[in-house]
Amino acid sequence: MSRGEGPGYLPEQAQIDVYGNGGFRFADMSHRGSILCLPSGIHAWTAVEGQPLKPDDFDKVIAEAERIEFLLVGTGLDIKPLSAELKALFRSHGMNSDPMSTGAAVRTYNIMLSEKRPVAAAFIAV
């Protein structure tokens, strides 16, 4: 994936067409690994299933917080709750956060994006 800011970046929001096998397909492109879907575009993300999420994993999200009302977090095959620290971080920047399995998060993201809602997503690859 790359169009613009180097490898691992698509400079536009796009629906996720397929997920699984360790990656995602969108906008006639594919990416192995996790992704952040932000108002500025789709970015490669270093998060992996089974590793705890930390505030600095969301630096790019926070940088665009003024354009995000809803943050969906696809936590892998299963739903894993967000830490109190992460929930407080997102709230302090005016974002509602919702953890769910990656599959459910992808489906919800696609619906919200098609409705032109101020949504972003962090998807851990499955």
TrEMBL record:
<dbReference type="InterPro" id="IPR036748">
    <property type="entry name" value="MTH938-like_sf"/>
</dbReference>
<dbReference type="InterPro" id="IPR007523">
    <property type="entry name" value="NDUFAF3/AAMDC"/>
</dbReference>
<dbReference type="Pfam" id="PF04430">
    <property type="entry name" value="DUF498"/>
</dbReference>
<protein>
    <recommendedName>
        <fullName>Mth938-like domain-containing protein</fullName>
    </recommendedName>
</protein>
